[in-house]
Amino acid sequence: xxxxxxxxxxxxxxxxxxxxxxxxxxxxxxxxxxxxxxxxxxxxxxxxxxxxxxxxxxxxxxxxxxxxxxxxxxxxxxxxxxxxxxxxxxxxxxxxxxxxxxxxxxxxxxxxxxxxxxxxxxxxxxxxxxxxxxxxxx
Length: 138
What we know:
- The radius of gyration is 14 Å and the shape is globular.
- It is an all-beta fold and about 140 residues long.
- Strand 1 and strand 2 (about 20-25) form a beta hairpin.
- Helix content is about 5%, strand content about 50%.
- The chain starts with a helix and ends with a strand.
- The chain has a six-stranded antiparallel beta sheet with strand order 1-2-6-3-8-9, with no helix packed on it.
């Protein structure tokens, strides 16, 4: 379910044949910044939905979601979200590549993105001011 603030914004776009939606999960319990050397798992073939968590020292961030693959090119952006953030990234067709960019509002604190498929961690990345999580599936 999207928040009222996002209900007025286009949270999804159709820039190609594929459709992507980013929906905030309200009330989700999200842990703080984790070590980036946690083990990650392969993305199960055909995955169309990912859980996204964004955390860090910055109180707010802008999240950008892009995808690549046959029929893809769909993207969306959630500007000025409150951290910690949890959301679902949903496609109508599985992307070959999924890229989630995070830019902290202040640009000087550590931010981290984590992507999960079927409750398994598939990507984790941290950076000062911003970061990007990228996954590939065939």
